[in-house]
Design a protein that fits this description.
Ubiquitin-like (UB roll), 38% strand, single chain
Amino acid sequence: MSKIFPTYCKYLLASGLASAVVSCSNTRFLKEGQMLYTGAEVKIDNDTISKKEKKDLQSALEANLTPKPNSTFLGMRPKLYFYNIAKEPKKDKGFNYWLKYKVGEKPVLLGDVDREFNKDIIENYSENKGYFNARATYDTVSKNKKAKVVYTLRPGSRYLIDGVKFQKDSTLINKEIQNLTARTLLKNGRPFDLDVIKAERERIDSRLKERGFYYFHPDNIIVQADSTVSKNHKVELNVKLKDDTPDLSTQQFSIDKVVVFPNYNIQDVKDGKYNIPMDKDSLSKYAFDDIYVIDPQHKFKPKIFDRALYFKKGDLYNRSNHNLTLNRLISLGVFKFVKNEFITSDSLNHKFDAYYLLTPRQIQSLRLEALGRTNSANYAGSELNLNWTHRNFFRGAEQFKAAIFGAFDFQMGGPENANNMFRAGANVQLSIPRIVAPFRFNSSSAFVPRTNINLGYEFQNRTQYYTLNNFTGSFGYVWKENVRKEHELKVLDITLVSPAKVTALYDSISKNNAAMQRIVAKQLIFGPTYSYTYTNTMQPKTNTFYYKGTLDLAGNITGLLTGANVKQGKEKDIFGIAFSQYAKIENDVRFYHKFTEKSSLATRFIGGIAYPYGNSEFIPFSKQFFSGGSNSIRAFRARTLGPGSFDPRTIEEGAYFDQSGDVKLELNAEYRANLYKFLNAAVFVDAGNIWLLHDDPQRPGAKFSKDFLNEIAVGAGVGLRLDFSILILRLDLAMPLRVPYYEKGSRWAFDKINFGDPSWRKDNLVLNIAIGYPF
């Protein structure tokens, strides 16, 4: 520490000097008479306003002032400095153009500030917040070619609401407005606030839209303020319909006909009217439950529209069902464009004909994917996928997907008997846009619930070790409550692992290692799984959150019915294979904080445990936890970390198997920033490990204990991300800072860092190449 501390002092001193130099150097580029604008300050001169009110008003006013001064970092203005030192480019491209106008920032001068305009903003904003008769002045403070503007506001006392009146009359729309008064946002004793008044008008509008008033608009409402009838800075509000409100805005509409064009094109429109066969025979030919489906070629079953459309003949128009119907039609996944129009009926007053104009996507598609990859375990390889998709398999918007694939990976720089891998297989999925079950499932969500059926097979060959056949199948449901909450329940999720060949080499390596023997043992896993996902990361908020919890219950009912208990010698099997019985839970929590539009902090915590019981003494290898790699703790190669303080260097040379565990804890933090257009950078720290629930003689130190914190691995690094919108290529370079299998007291690796040593770099600098963000 004695050597490190002076180094930090040098960095701080250098930073301070750089700040002073850059700060001073920016003003020397100014012309005679120019002054650099450093910002504005608002002072409030009124002792009757509380400190909190004064602080809130001050921050709001300063946020509304223009222009904003040049951005700063640690007291410096680096962007302004780059602008100043860069030469004026001759063309709108090249290094000087990039440095001056992309990296750099044009100086904001005092002459750019319209002080009278800002003074008006301050006064008007204060008036809108209830500080009537507000007056503002300004003064300019300058020194060393820098200037700031100080605005002084002298607001009157804030006016409070002292009565809210909703004007009555005998019209239908007024009666509906009177029914909305109980939930008004205008409350007695609250400050007068123009933003709240606008919100109240929008509230009334949205509620009237739910009651059939399709053409109503918030501007049809006026809120009159009267401050003369009360004393002591009070104001009365009168809410009324404007006298010039259009007659159409006051009419309540209901639905007459609902007409669907599932194969819409522009030729269906002539002279502004839809070319629909409206004679009785034609309508009855296409009619289903009061919905007219114009589909002469019968490409779609009419029943899918009955489930998706929430308007029926005679229903009162409401905005919720309007939006809900559009969202459900889109979520069917078979239509590329969804358009909706409400046309007033020619023969009936206050009636709509609802038209849904649906343009189908390409019903069938065939896609060939070829990709190359490398990972932190020194593997490189390639994969080829052929995917066929049918989006209307049984004419009910069912999506059928079939895929075949082949992949190989070879170990670079490994021993002669390198553990190369080959995989090939196929899988099919049928996704039905409804819940297929013996019970009725009603959903008012904007997202269509789905029933998913999956079947798959994979042939896996680790060339020097073993060959496995993997069969998978599942039946379950996916449904969303809303855009933030999603549920997935697999009523039955089956995995069958059957070894086709185990080499003598692998037998010789694994004969004294039970964990390795379990990898090639026959495995039968079946049972329900459930996952719940909540996220608001799609919202434009400063702080966003993601959570996914997964519960996996295998063989529980079967184990209970058969009385299975492996510890008592009562192991049960199905078709000669002992079925697995366990409970597994995993939680993935992520938090994102946005500093600016171009920088953010992303954090993640993963915690999981898998507990075997009944018919199983161990968790199946394929269901255990793993650590290390490009989406985990990046300073350790994929699946090589842990369990616990087990030292992988003790594994026999030439042997290979992934390290797995029953318990997982992981914490990640990553600062992300945009450097230039598609180029992003990151600085990250990862920590965590996996452990076993039981002792393993072949892996000492692997069991989870109260000393688990002392067995946490820590890694850190930097990364570059090439964001091309449709593809994000990620390169992360990491190194271990704490290694759990080192001797106690020596697990922190700061004193072992030696970038000049090629051997150290080879063993400790881990490059992860991946697609997409790690979390």
